Batch of 2 targets.
Target 1
Amino acid sequence: MRGNALRLFAGLALALWLVLPLVPLAIWSVAHGWRFPDLLPQQWSGNAWAYAFSPGSGVLESLGLTVFIATATTVLAALVGVPAGRALGLHEFRGKGIVTLILIAPAIVPGIAVALGLHGVFLRLGLTGTVGGVILAHLIPVIPYMTLIMASVFSSFDTDVEAQARSLGARPVQVFIHVTLPAILPGLMTGALFAFLVSWSQYLLTLSIGGGRVQTLPLTLFTFATSGRNDVTGAIAILYILPGVLILLFTARHLTGRNQSLAARVGA
Amino acid sequence: MTERTRIILMLAPAFLLLGGVFFSALGLTLLRSFRYMPVIGLTEPDLAAYATILASPGFLGSLGLSLWIAAVSTLTSAGLALAAALLLRQTFPGRRLIGFLFQLNLTVPHVVGAIGILYLFSQSGAFARLAYAGGLIGGPAEFPALVHDPFAVGIILQYVWKEVPFIGLILLANMQAIGEDHEATARSLGATRWQAFTHVLLPMLMPGLIAASALVFAFAFGAYEIPLLLGANAPEALPVLAYRSYTDVDLAARPEAMAMAMIIALIGGAMVLVYARFARPMGRGRHAG
């Protein structure tokens, strides 16, 4: 009995700690002034949300741009990550260890270690300050995740069905579209959603390569957070975490079914 | 087409893209850190930038601070994640809710967590207001400095908030794969619950725990925007110092910024090796073809 009560208490404390940092953000977004030492705002207001959705604030523009960059990054990462994941998941070859190392390193080495050099490289190529340059930069942490997830998908893929389709006269493109793609689609969706979220969260690579001209949502959020507009900051923060919440609800229901997390798929 | 050619063709696009952006960027960083910049007449590579920063108290302070942040965040997160995973392995009311919150937390970008921590722990934040309401403090200034503080408490709290669910979910997945048979066998041979944990389950979880911790260490050491929001002015975390040196109007500071970036890359590279050594190898090549 005491064990049960203890577990329940620990569980409650954990749940509370997990949501706690999001609570002041949500409250601020509907507060009209919220000064020390008020525990709750004296007055409530929808001003912050109205401002965030007004054309002048640039928040919606920023949201659209962030969605575009994350989507483009995801598509490009899938185009290169699916074949690379197939090579790693289905084949044993000499040098596989070092190849894997090279493919995962860009996701683990901190962005600041490459951002400065990348800025120099892109300066010569005229890619600084452009959306295309930012997308290329985002591919650095995104390709490794996509490749690892696809490798784990392909490691349980049965190539016999492809051989059967070929023996029945299907051309390679037909085999891919009608046999391979349907089989890997659930895993590919997981990889795509994960890739989207990794690009969605980038701050430094966007700042250094975009040079202030590519204003994604985290940059806008940061600007408001450091200018003391706590109410607008709260509203943008809620907007910013929304896609992740939607993706989570979507994956929980459609993709994995069981309690299998995104992290567990890419993690150790 | 031989199998070898096919493998090379499948890997080529990813390699070309990552080579084009990641490895060329690292290469340029390395050259610049050796003060090799023909454009401004520097054609003799040397180690002067490294010598300068290694003798600079500012750099050493930042390096020490970032190592402190990464070490404390990683150890605290790993310990709490292990406890949380052991808790979530059992059945109790609300377990599914916590499982959901763990995954939710994973999708929240670090910047949002950092701002949330700021609004909770600053001297006019939620906890300071609670302390005032409880009569513990007479004003904001009496609340202990937990953000922008010399011990980087706020930064560490943010990483712990984000990384406990990350490591915890990896541990839970490993626990599912391991099953409970090994522990049950140990128990049937007379081991206590504690012994079954320390001698059976923990050693089996260790590789996954170390691999996940390497990822957390690399991130906590190299993240930029979190210490920028929550850190003190001096010493700054190393990534903040490196980026500020790079954007400094004085171009002479650039090779030093590049040298700092290389040192961060080295520590990141070490974590890549730790991760690769302990993470589960993938792919079994059962269906070569």
Note: Chain A has one domain: 46-266.
Target 2
Amino acid sequence: MQLNIRAEKENTYDAIVVGSGISGGWAAKELCEKGLKTLVLERGRNVEHIKDYTTAMKAPWEFPHRLNHTLEQKDNYPIQSQCYAFDEATQQFWVNDKENPYNQIKPFNWLRGYHVGGRSLMWGRQVYRWSDIDFGANGRDGFGVDWPIRYKDVESWYDYVETYIGISGQAEGLPQLPDGKFLKAMEMNCLEKHVAGRIKEQFNDRIMTIGRVAHVTEKHNDRGPCQFRNLCARGCPFTGYFSSNGVTLPAAAKTGNMTLRPDSIVLEVIYDDKKGKATGVKILDSTTMQTVEYYANIIFLNASTIGTASILLNSVSSRFPNGFGNDSEQVGHNLMDHHFGVGAGGEYDGFQDQYYNSGRRPNGIYIPRFRNVNAATKRTDYVRGFGYQGGADRNRGTSFDGIGAAFKDSMSEAGTWSFGIGSWGEHLPYYENKVTLNKDKKDKYGLPTLDIDCSFKENELAMRKDMAASAKEMLEAAGLKNVNTYDEMPPPGHCIHEMGTARMGRDPKTSVLNSWNQVHAAKNVFITDGACMASSACQNPSITYMALTARAVDHAVKELKKGNL
Amino acid sequence: MNRREAIRNVALLLGTAISASTLSALEGCNPKGPDNYALQAPETKKILAEIAETIIPETSTPGAKAAKVDEFIAMMLNDCYKPEDQKNVLDGLKKVDEASEKQFKKSFVDLSDEQRNTVLTAIDKERVDYNKRDNKKEGDPTHYFQILKELTLTGYFTSEPGATKALRYVPVPGKYEGCIPYKKGDKAWAV
């Protein structure tokens, strides 16, 4: 008995954070800096900043296949290898699909990194605030449940996280895309400047701006600056972009309050019927295969949208027979991703006497949403909207025909300019798009696998037609030639913006979390990863997870001090 | 940008629409098959080296041989291409020899540089005509010379000699400048 008490004491912390990715890292930093002894659990291996970026400084010729995919990679990573950021240099940051199975009821690309830092190492780093057009969308058109918060609730937290991590961008004063706290904007190249000018001239409802990106374009908090190598997904030895590994976890560690435990797969949240609250989590140590329980007053779930849903569904008690916090039967449902892979590209004859320097800008251009943002831009064929990302490049060579010295010379010189844009569109929350446990198919740890059943529907498909047509219209108006549209219709998941499986809301009957990201029925459990999102908007979501996390930790610690948790 | 788009951009950089079999190879799609020993045979490497050097000869900058493009092509075909594409290219090498014998009564490796250029110029025209053919069907094989040319260019321009001598390679640029003057003949950036 005494032994048990001692073990329990040793395994007790002030707070537990499940997951070390983009939101878990923020929870860890904020909790630790507020003085809480915090245990950070990560299901995968440790990745130490810089030391473990083994490919970061390699030249192209140091990779045998020059970063192309082999048949063997495709065999072991059939899903992950479809991601643009997967290659010979980054393979170590993606899960082996064979060893980490899930069940696609409909096609769904679940792109994952199981290691300390999670996908914050390989993310696209684009940062766009949400506006009240987004937070008010569900309430306005009736899809999903109304967000319990508005822009004014998050604005100061956007300021807070952006100021800390450093965002490069250009203020534009748009109501649908609030400006942030920007470091020096990256430059557009000649063709991009030209296209931006033509769009401004010819369309009174839209602009093209430089991408807003989590890169430090000037020295910032001892980090960077970005060196314009554009090898980000290998991990950055200059800490030029934001990752948990490079920014939030070191800040958490510096306090002396963080215990980071890799190789710890969280099995369930422990609920104590007598206390009427969650008391901790049970983990499986993947190196010893032992289960261990850890206890804390506050628990943050940041295991990623699908990972967090899986933990909730696996956490069954007499109080929560259908999964932790699942009184509403919404856990695992309303799964969203952005739909993308549609747009247009074209060529430009001019600027033959212009090029860019050796810098490889890790960023492109952005055309903010211009549909359904006010009465004048209201569409009758779909609700919500989309934005575009893209950019211009000057290709190498002008023709593939020929051989010999002249051909070699031509291929060694700058050739035609081309410009392309692709669109990112909002995915509505549908109850039937869901993640459920499959207890018949177990993984290598004997845990249930997940059935993922998710699709895009009429609204998304109608929007896509406009996404392609508007892209073509703008590029032609900008004077590009040979403009072609494309629509590759990648399956949900492929955009890696999955959200919505434990949504926030005003009513515990129809939502899982309250306005502070607390589980309605267990207020000491907070969920601040993508699971909390009640709608998807069309902006890249990570900065919103970060802002909501910092806000939730602030609330959690205040409530703890008041004795409310 | 997704993978396919990224690959298309690579294709654009190569100055061409990329062939279906190379796209499929770059994306990968089949379990790894056994090693194809015909690709490793000395005579295969020898003719690959001469074909690659004829496409990208040594000039004021190193050529394909100096960049070991023959080894790169053999390895890529083995590790990244389906067995039927490997066979397509190996059969293609025989066709190169047949064309050489027909025109110059010698195998390709025994030709002079000028003769090699003549043979491959004709084959490259054949490739262009094949790509423009009217009766295209899904599943048609890619012209073998298309694959050889794509792999030669990739292998050369991503090699150390190709990237640093024929092109300009700057590992740590430090900054991005969007508009700088360019003169015809200036080397392009390697990456």
Note: Chain B touches chain A through 75 residues (CB under 8 Å).
